[in-house]
Design goal:
7 helices, mainly alpha
């Protein structure tokens, strides 16, 4: 019955139409796929697109993770720090306490095995020397954030450990 209908339809079509109708269906890409072989390119393109999107999202989340909102007394510029310590000498102690807390946060955020033995108040570079370091740094970098000065101090303490 199906054969008869098909041949009847073919007799009613011109040759070009008959060839299109008679054209075999594309071969599946493999025995497990119902998609034509050309769909392999589409699947590969989609896979590349998905991987690219995942990498972009990962890079975006890493960039967001690296930026943090700093709060507290030290959330100022070096210029602000310089002005504060000139107008109120007692505030140095508060800045130094904030500095130690900020560096402790840096230390805790380091990968395991990194800086575990770092002393944030070594006898060879005591708190008074650290305060002088911050004052000197901010005097020559007054447009930077105070947190940048503290990060520079942290790096200096890492060097101190090596000596």
């Amino acid at each position: 019955m199906i054969q008869w209908e098909r041949s009847t339809v073919l007799r009613q079509c011109n040759e070009t139409q008959a060839k299109e109708i008679e054209a075999p269906a594309p071969e599946p890409a493999d025995e497990h796929s119902m998609l034509p072989r050309d769909s392999h390119r589409i699947r590969t393109g989609l896979a590349v697109l998905l991987v690219s999107a995942a990498l972009l999202l990962q890079a975006s989340s890493q960039a967001q993770a690296q930026t943090a909102r700093i709060v507290g007394l030290g959330a100022t510029t070096c210029r602000g720090f310089n002005e504060d310590v000139k107008s109120n000498a007692n505030i140095r102690r508060d800045y130094l306490a904030w500095t130690q807390g900020f560096m402790s946060g840096i230390l805790l955020g380091r990968p395991p095995g990194t800086d575990e033995t770092l002393n944030l108040a070594p006898p060879t570079f005591d708190l008074v020397q650290q305060l002088r370091f911050l004052e000197d740094y901010c005097a020559s970098h007054d447009r930077e954030d105070f947190a940048d000065a503290v990060t520079a101090l942290y790096k200096r303490l890492r060097q101190e450990r090596k000596t």
